[in-house]
Write a structure and sequence with these properties.
The structure holds two protein chains of two kinds.
Chain A: E1 13-17, H1 20-38, H2 41-59, E2 66-72, E3 76-78, E4 82-91, E5 95-102, E6 107-111, E7 116-123, E8 127-135, E9 139-142, E10 145-151, E11 157-165, E12 168-172, E13 205-210, H3 222-228, E14 232-236, E15 243-250, H4 256-278, E16 282-289, E17 293-298, H5 300-319, E18 338-343, H6 350-359, E19 363-369, H7 381-403, E20 408-411, H8 417-436
Helix pairs in contact in A: 1-2, 4-5, 6-7
Chain B: H1 4-30, H2 33-51, H3 56-72, H4 83-101, H5 111-134, H6 139-160
Helix pairs in contact in B: 1-2, 1-4, 2-3, 3-4, 4-5, 5-6
Classes of the chains: A alpha/beta, B mainly alpha.
Amino acid sequence: MAPTLEDPGRMRWARRPDPKLPAYLVAGFGALVVAIGSGRPEIAALGAPFLVLAAVGLTRRGPDRLSGHVDMSVSSAVEGDLLDGEVTVDWDGTAEVDVILAGWRGVVPVSPTEVVGWSLPPGRGPVTLPFSLQARSWGVHSLGALWVRAKRPGGYTSKEQKVNLAPTIRVFPTPLRLARMLKPAEPRTVAGMHLARVRGSGTDFVEMRPYQPGDRFRDISWSTSARMVEPWVRVNHPERTGTVVILLDAVFSDEKRSKEALARAARAAWAVASVHLRAQDRVGLLARGRTVAWLPPRGGRRARWMLLEKLLGVGRAAEDLLHRKRARSRIHVPADALVVGVSTLRSQVFAPDLLHYRRAGHTTVAMVVDISDLLPAGKDPAGTAARRIWLAQREVEHESLERGGVPTSVITADGGAGPAILALRRRLDASRKAIVGGVAEP
Amino acid sequence: MIHWLTRRPTLGGLALAVAGLTGVFVVLVGEAPGYAHGATFYFLLAFLASVSPAAIAAQVLGGQLLVGSLLLVPHGPPPIQLIPAVEGVILTAELLSIMARMDTPFESHPRNDLRRAGFSVLIGAGVFEAVLLASPFPGPTGLLAVGLASGACVGIAALLATPD
């Protein structure tokens, strides 16, 4: 994959002196001054070695030209994947070069370990250095920038420069196997992978035909009618898709546990979105919390990629403090949309948000991602109490959702999203039957 | 294979040992109680420089002051006897500088730096001796001779060190 190139002339660089260079210069010239002042030539002898050493070091200035780039074997990966890459660095003449890839996020170095850095013995460029990273967390991550520090052998000044930016990489969440899905709020004919032969109102074009009594005026194609000198109507496939809006609770902190909790919620959201998109539903995403992402409901393959991009953007925000967005005001979702809330219930604003959509008339369900296994075990009374308080708070949020008419189910770390979806589907079916039968919804 | 990252403390210890030996040498040559305090102070400066590279300048200047004090006292040792002390100051500074360069989170290979530290010590001793030879002339003549000798050494070193 081609790296993101930046004009090398605009890259920051600096010449850094060896820590002993100023000492040698001061010692050398200082001794000369003292020798002249005191009239004692032997004092100058004490400074001469330092002056000579400084002169030797200063004549060997760092290379004038430094260049380099980072190539990755892949541009996207799944959490846990190994990513191979190569750093190529070039310079003029013989030099001792230190190379470091700094500022990466969402990945951990595998080889070389701890940091992706090399200290090269004196030699000439170009040099190619292989490295391996492991995708740690999902999101669109920058692999940072390539920094090079070079100095001539024996030189007392080195040149340090950011020579290029490393590419970005998309890390996808670990896929969840999901066979079940929720029924959209307003299921049309049937949700399937292919269009049926039946015709009706919709957006997928079938044919044009002359106007017949009973046709809707809104279906008249005015341009075709003008050409044919008689009214013609546009005939479409019937609308058979549902609309699902996933409300993702994107509240997180800088803690590792918090990011893992967000990752679990995102995996569940992605699993729900994927299965509905495969069934031709229109799916939208609304992530709210320390970052905001809004994708209006869309269907098809393109929607899948757009939704994934939005989700990866949330993942990036969790890793990169600079890419967080402030929350916007409440977003209006389509009236017929089934709102699926996915949350760990750590946030106290998520439940009111979801209840707002319920009160607005949307069919609303909540999938609560269980992260109790991520909580630190209470080893002392304070820890135990903190754990209990956290669980009680979650229970309060859970209860408020249920009381507000939002069916909830819990996604456990072991069970995955499948059983939770099945449970929600049963509850939705039961409530719909109750409404049809004239019985009040429980 | 030597893991140099783990050898950094060893280099620091070596630098401090050289600084300590330099101090002991000055105390022995100086034969006065004040030199013991000076040597202790110099050792502390070297220790400080091993912690923070910014203090290398203080170590060099402290060392120079310590050796220079032997030159300034009446009836002091002959200047040529001070070559080990000058070498000690330079070697300590070079080792501390190598240590500072190794203060990176990745493996650094200071083999060439160590070799060059040895050369620096040899150059320092040679220049000190060469300039001392020009210094016996008293007054301005001696200063001129020392200046010329120093300039010549700097010029020769610069010519020899010109990069390829």
